[in-house]
Amino acid sequence: MFRRDSFGHLLWIKRMLVSTIGWLTWSRYVKKNTISIEGTEILKNLPERNVLFISNHQTYFADVIAFLHVFCAVKNGQHNSISKPSYLWKPKVNSYFVAAEETMKKGLLPRIFAYVGSVSIQRTWKQGGKDVNRKVRMDDISNIGTALSDGWVITFPQGTTKPFAQGRRGVVLILKKYNPIIVPVVIDGFRRAFDKRGIKLKKRGTKLSVKFKDPLNIDLSQTADEILAVLMDAIEQSAKFQAGTIIRENKSVLQ
Q1: 116 near 21, Cβ under 8 Å?
Q2: Cα separation of 199 and 201, whole Å?
Q3: Angle formed by the axes of helices 170-178 and 224-234, nearest 10°
Q4: Residue 110 confidence class, pLDDT cut points 50, 70, 90
Q5: Which of 132-136, 175-179, 200-204 has the lowest mean pLDDT?
Q6: Which residue from 44, 36, 31, 45 is spatially nearest to 73, judged by alpha carbons?
Q7: Cα(153)–Cα(150) distance, integer angstroms
Q8: If pLDDT is split at 50, 70 and 90, which confidence band does 231 have?
Q9: Which of 6-20, 73-87, 100-114, 179-193 has the lowest mean pLDDT?
Q10: To 5 degrees, how large is the angle CA 34–CA 35–CA 41?
């Protein structure tokens, strides 16, 4: 009843919140849209702690909620599917996600997500819509380490929902300091289905996809730029994938 996570949050409250968020949003992924999930067989063999999921980012919250659904489903024996929401009766509560500090202070919903498992960080390149240039706050790295010591952490190394944006070096500090298992994830469709915050349903009938890839084996003695290049390629946000996207879009227009 009084057990807490590594940040002092009561686990029974987290279970209630994850379950409630899940029940309120399940139909948005399964009924109002369709979701394709691949690679969850990888998740069942992962340890309970020190796993870092790196993913591209399309909305503030819809992406994260989808991850929570998948993690809870896998915990309860469902693989590559969230079609049977009974998994929400026994949610996984040692999952965390990295989010911009300013985003998590705007309104009640972000504060709820903060309790569920957000690890808020100060962005080094932007504040309040303005460009800035400041060093990574080491307390933020330590907090991510605390989350890793307790469970699985989702991070979006681009730090923005803009496609093909450059990766940020803060993720390299995390890798070098904590040496987690690194699982790349590629998502798609969320930008079309939801508004930027991922709260409002923008378009029904959209095909959503979440693909988990094999854990990466990265030589951490490489430079930050070399490591970022590997990460961006793994989540299909590198220049070669951008070029491929442009070619496909041009062909679609011509047809």
Answers
A1: yes
A2: 7
A3: 100
A4: confident
A5: 132-136
A6: 44
A7: 9
A8: very high
A9: 100-114
A10: 150
Joined tokens for residue 55: 């993913």
Q: How is 14-44 classified by DSSP, letter by letter?
A: HHHHHHHHHHHHHHHHHTSSEEEEE-TTTGG
pTM value is 0.91
Distance CA(235)–CA(241), nearest Å, equals 10
Alpha-carbon distance of 147 to 99, in angstroms, equals 13
Question: Going edge to edge, which strands form the sheet with 181-188?
Answer: 34-38, 207-212, 181-188, 51-55, 152-155, 95-100, 118-121
CA distances in angstroms from 15 to 57, 143, 147, listed in the order given:
25, 21, 17
For residue 178, give Cα distances in angstroms to 53, 106, 136, 147.
14, 30, 16, 11
The type of residue at 157 is P
Instruction: Enumerate the β-bridge partners of residue 37.
Output: 210
Task: Output the CA torsion 10→11→15→21 (10° steps).
Answer: 50
Tokens found for residue 152:
């699985």
Q: Which of 30, 14, 24, 56 minimizes the C-alpha distance to 191?
A: 56
Identify the CA nearest to 113 among candidates 247, 5, 17: 17
Nearest CA among 102, 107, 84, 99 for reference residue 29: 84
The rounded distance, in Å, linking the Cα atoms of 181 and 174 is 11
